[in-house]
Amino acid sequence: MNASRTARDRARAELTREITEEARRQVASEGAQRLSLRAVARELGMVSSALYRYFPSRDDLLTQLIIDAYDGLGEAVEHGDDGIPAADPRGRWTAKCAAARTWAIAHRHEYALIYGTPVPGYQAPEATVGHASRVPVALLGVVKDALDAGLLAEPPARRHALDPELAAQGELAASLVAIDLPPAAAVRAVIAWSQLSGMIGFELFGTFAGSFDPADAFFSEAVARMADLVGLPDGG
Amino acid sequence: MNASRTARDRARAELTREITEEARRQVASEGAQRLSLRAVARELGMVSSALYRYFPSRDDLLTQLIIDAYDGLGEAVEHGDDGIPAADPRGRWTAKCAAARTWAIAHRHEYALIYGTPVPGYQAPEATVGHASRVPVALLGVVKDALDAGLLAEPPARRHALDPELAAQGELAASLVAIDLPPAAAVRAVIAWSQLSGMIGFELFGTFAGSFDPADAFFSEAVARMADLVGLPDGG
DNA sequence: CGTTGTCGAGAGCACTGCTCTCGCTTGCCT
DNA sequence: AGGCAAGCGAGAGCAGTGCTCTCGACAACG
């Protein structure tokens, strides 16, 4: 028996899909700000009020798009290193970062939806956190694999150890995503992740305009330096 | 003779100021998305159409707020290291980064205005770039001072030199802000700047919720690691 | 002193998210 | 098989938005 049995259920699922697709199209081409329920309804040949049978509000429709965007980026990053040997963690890291950038450039408005300014008054429902964590999980996974394979460089000895509160948070963060990693390594990976996000944001939102404009070279350099920071071995 | 002579001119300047102030108040409390010309006019006891005598469109009012935000953050960062001896470039760097974060937290919506998702269809007028560059200029200035004082560590010898295109862009970027810095140093500083921006964004927009939630310790660690990357000497 | 340009008010246009009511259809239960 | 409740789309309507245009009043300049 099919998941959706009755004709009504099937129609509902179909229409829900069509609505999100048209909405995604609008967001992709015009940005989330310009997403209009009425325009979506118009495009689908229905009246705007009918749309509320499927999404109780504009924010709920946006939430669906946000989840989809998290999944799209997450999947791109998860598979960004396909075909790269496990023995080359730096290569995997680099490929995943490049995949994130490529996806972000190809879906700039959807990327802005998840890593840009949150819609005011809107706070991410619980439902999104699992999808949101796919990218950091994928990045931390590379570090974890490198550690397990004995390929993770020890951070250079520092005068001071990690701040105790930070160590606790690092451990908590790693445990939240079910990746067993020493806090120092987790913290460094998160530093790199935030750098990645900042850099992509700069490129996408025009901060680099006029300087590192085709940002390819800058991106490569930054990813390499972050790989250094994380402790991934410089292969070759 | 005063800059604004006639009563009309003075009244105009005064009202322009009042409008931007009320608009800033709205943005600060509700976010740029919720800035409403009609609400501003209402609050000022005038009718909405009258507002168009002062700002030709909502975007122009937003542009003014964006410039003000750039200046506010810029000034905070420029003076964030006041009182810290020039002989301590790492201390100055750390203080400036902390000042940026403090300002961002205190003015989250204004920060989002400049480093968050740009308003769709809106592109920063030429007039903004000077204001926008104050933060990177301030950060690069610390690096430049360290270099001049012979306090900037040489980047560890790398197998490959900087990509030629990247070196050219780095040189161009440094020259754009009139700071004479070797490309490699400039690039590293910009990497650190983008990390700073990404990290502040994560904290502000809730990406860290549930892990590095009071982000103070994480922030300190990240700033320190970026200071390492830039080559600022670990004092003490 | 008169002309010109600026100003605020008001009406109005096209659009938005959202609500409510009204019939029609579908599907489940008896 | 029949009936009732739930789901559905259409339409009208509300309160709000950015923005335009016109009109009468006032200030500034020649």
TrEMBL record, chains A, B:
SUPFAM superfamilies: Homeodomain-like, Tetracyclin repressor-like, C-terminal domain. Keywords: DNA-binding, Transcription, Transcription regulation. It comes from the Bacteria. Residues 36-55 bind DNA. It holds the Pfam family TetR_C_33. InterPro entries: Homeodomain-like_sf, HTH-type_TetR-like_transc_reg, HTH_TetR, MT1864/Rv1816-like_C, Tet_transcr_reg_TetR-rel_C_sf. The keyword DNA-binding applies. The keyword Signal does not apply. Residues 13-73 form the HTH tetR-type domain. PANTHER family: HTH-TYPE TRANSCRIPTIONAL REGULATOR RUTR (PTHR30055), HTH-TYPE TRANSCRIPTIONAL REGULATOR RV1816 (PTHR30055:SF243). This is TetR/AcrR family transcriptional regulator.
